[in-house]
Amino acid sequence: MITAETTIFTVMSQLAQQYGAINLAQGFPDFDIDPKLKEITASLVFEGQHQYQPMMGHLGLREKIALLTQKNYHRKVDPQTEILITAGATQGIYTAIQALVQPGDEVIILDPSYDCYVTPVVLRNARAIRIPLNHDYTPNWETISKAITDKTRMIVINNPHNPSGRIWQETDFETFETILENHPNILVLSDEVYEYMTFEQKHISVHERPKLQEKSIVISSFGKSLHITGWKIGYLIAPKNLMNEVKKVHQFLVFCVNGLAQQVINAYLSEDVTSHISAFYQAKRDYFRNLLSGARFDLLPCEGSYFQLASYANISDENEIDFTLRLVQKHGIAVIPVRPFREDELDQKHIRFCFAKKNETLEMAAELLSKL
User: From CA 199, how far away is CA 299, in angstroms rounded?
Assistant: First the structure.
């Protein structure tokens, strides 16, 4: 039996509300969505488009995703058989694991890791093998390779990485591919929900790795990319043979997802709406880092995502949980400790800020943080 615990994201957001604190914890924007999305939504509401969509999703939207994938990653995917619209990225992750992992299998997860990876593994009566990343949040290929056994069915990767904001390098993929050549039955679940939020260096996608494509399930999120997290719309791309298994679970889990939202996004994607996202968030990152330049935090590298890790070792000897609790209760700032992302509970005195916020929010937060 799995122990159900409230996630750290919910806990910190509730505390932010309770103490009237600025919420830099949970990963959602506090700025408005594109007015064009509102206009399209308003027009479609009156067109009677309120019934079920096909189980795999609105075909027009799947065709747009195929074009987006070809444009950005030069990968051709079949919208009829290789793309599935999901109720957010989390449902895509859950569905893929339920469909492709069997009882007794092992799934390698790289810590610190998002908390939605482990639960579906446990619910499948499989075993989550959690392998720590290096202290700088890069993959430790020696420990990863040693963790592989004849029971290993899947490896879950997250690139750009939450919570660290690190991205994989070309050498990481080359080493990963070499390891998998000796283990051809291992599948890859690649969580790439922050794919359009990379900065000085564009992230490398599994879509761009021919050696990985036929054994990989790639998860994406319109919620993250289009700042519409509450719409809970994501998608999953996988080769037909794997997708056939995923569909067997999807049809009985949700059957299909919000039809109106799918049609709105389909109409919106007629324009080139992804090309500006990285520049938008890089400006947010740089602005926030500059605001904290006089504070006593040590800001870690942020290569992608909308999260900034920081060390508070110069400020306090408290553990991460105690420090974040004091931060929200006494100083009016809610952030996320990194320790709950880890099985080994290593405490590096690292906390995570979300900078997907209005500039005014970041300014108010930085003013409080600079007083610590």
Answer: 16
Count the Cβ atoms, other than its own, within 10 Å of residue 298: 14
First to last CA, the chain: 42
Question: What is the structure's pLDDT at 1?
Answer: 45
Going by their DSSP bridges, the two strands 333-334 and 307-311 should be labelled as: unpaired
Element (H, E) at 129: strand 127-132
Report pTM: 0.95
Average pLDDT over all residues of the chain: 95
How much is the pLDDT for 189? 98
**By 3-state DSSP, what share of the chain in percent is helix, strand and coil, each rounded to 5?**
40, 15, 45
CA-closest candidate to residue 263, choices 33, 45, 35, 32: 45
Instruction: Give the C-alpha separation, 347 to 144, whole Å.
Output: 21
d(CA 340, CA 8): 7
State yes or no: pLDDT of 223 exceeds 80: yes
Write phi, then psi, for 191 (nearest 5 degrees). -85, 110
348: nearest Cα among 328, 369, 325, 319: 319
Please state whether the peptide bond connecting residue 35 to the residue before it is cis, i.e. omega within 30 degrees of 0: no
Burial of 150 (0-12, 13-18, 19+ CB in 10 A): exposed
Peptide bond into 139 cis (omega under 30): no
E strand map for 62-122: 83-86, 106-111
Proportion of the chain above pLDDT 90, given as a percent:
91
For CA atoms 248, 254, 258, 259, give the dihedral sign: positive
Got the DSSP string for 241-275? HHHHHHHHHHHHHTSS--HHHHHHHHHHTTS--ST
* Spatial separation of the C-alpha atoms in residues 148 and 176, rounded to whole Å: 12
Q: Which secondary-structure segment (H or E) carries 333?
A: strand 333-334
Per-residue pLDDT reduced to its tens digit, 69-96: 999 999 999 999 999 999 999 999 999 9
3-state SS assignment for residue 134: coil
Please give the average per-residue pLDDT across 35-39, as a whole number: 96
Strands 350-354 and 216-221, sheet pairing: unpaired
C-alpha closest to that of 83 among 99, 100, 69 = 69
